[in-house]
Amino acid sequence: MSKAPDNPAPLVVAAALAGIQGGVLFVFAVLELAHLSGERVTMGVTTAAFFAVYGAALIGCAWAVTHGQAWARSPLVLTQLIQLGLAWSFRGGETTWVAVGLAVVAIVVLLGLLHPASIEALNDDPTS
Length: 128
Hints:
Blueprint: H1 9-34, H2 41-66, H3 73-89, H4 96-114, H5 116-121
Helix pairs in contact: 1-2, 1-4, 2-3, 3-4
């Protein structure tokens, strides 16, 4: 019998932002395909495929954590850690706003996923 979703606000916010991240990756996939050129067809198609698969995985994991699947938290946390590294690479100059945006979203998602209420909601132990 599956656990009924009783999701705390931090988990819902984290899942929503992770779902938006997945949607943005889909947009990047479409943009990559729209800008294919003859010299880089293979690179463009594989990059678009990567973005699309990664976006689908993020959306799937976001859906899974809102339905009590604790396994999905790990890929979401890993994605946010990667995003923090990406934000670090954008710091300084004209891209500082990108760095701040990436970092803020990653931190909010991490805080939401690691909040005690979220951890309790994703607890696999039926005795607690």
